[in-house]
Amino acid sequence: MGPRDVTDLEAFLRQRRSQARVVRLDRDTATVASAAEALGVSPDRIIKSLVFMVNDEPILVIAGGPSRVDRRRLAEILGVPPGKVRLATPEEVLAATGYPVGGVPPVGHARQMRVYVDRRVAEAPTTVFGGGGADRFLIEIEPSELVALTGAEVIDLV
Fold first, then answer.
1. What is the 8-class DSSP label of residue 46?
2. pLDDT for 56-83, tens place per residue?
3. Which fold has domain 6-155?
4. Domain spans in the chain, listed from the N-terminal domain onward
């Protein structure tokens, strides 16, 4: 199976009868700042989906765009030494999610992974925007649906 794209993400959302929607933008959305600017929203409404490798197992972490994920805290939560947690390479991200770095959506991945959502994202008062499967695409989703679709554990991460 080749890399996934926006049509795969949209199919996943349809199959799950999701209220989330994929938004196409006419400019680059690769960074939190550029995505927020393109949408005309606060950077707090942008989320990032990061793949970490923990003992060769991919783990997806969803955090607020402006936040920094504390790897030591993640290691503590997972019960492993800090040295056992590292950011996945672009090849590992593609293998785990099916999507290229920069376009990784928070839902609809190639394989089942453990997913952790930072509490600030899970409790956001409004929809949030994450990767939409490709550059210039974003997904808009309710935080509660994000947690439900991923089976995520909500944690204090940043």
1. B
2. 999 999 999 989 999 999 999 999 999 9
3. YbaK protein (3.90.960)
4. 6-155
